[in-house]
Design a protein that fits this description.
This protein has 82 residues and is mostly helical. It has 4 helices and 2 strands. 66% of the residues lie in helices and 5% in strands.
């Protein structure tokens, strides 16, 4: 009854789940429902989160997209390798 999943299928499931997680964060915090998070929506008055926001905002447009949030773990991995 149990079927094993290929590595490709597992990676695909992980990436899909990750994308849903970013969408959930945006859905939860996006007060103006524009599909992006401003620094106020993401961090409020929290200085640590404001600093993190600035690092995550790859294109420096003052908002975080789902794509930028999804790439956040990749940035963390690259930083650890250095």
């Amino acid at each position: 009854m149990f079927r094993s999943l290929s590595l490709t299928a597992l990676v695909s499931l992980f990436l899909m789940n990750s994308a849903f997680a970013e969408a959930d964060v945006i859905k939860e915090k996006d007060k103006d429902k524009d599909g992006k998070l401003t620094i106020e929506e993401y961090a409020g008055d929290d200085k640590k989160l404001q600093k993190k926001f600035k690092k995550l905002d790859a294109n420096n447009d003052g908002s975080l997209s789902a794509d930028e949030l999804q790439k956040a773990p990749e940035k963390k991995k690259k930083k650890k390798k250095k």
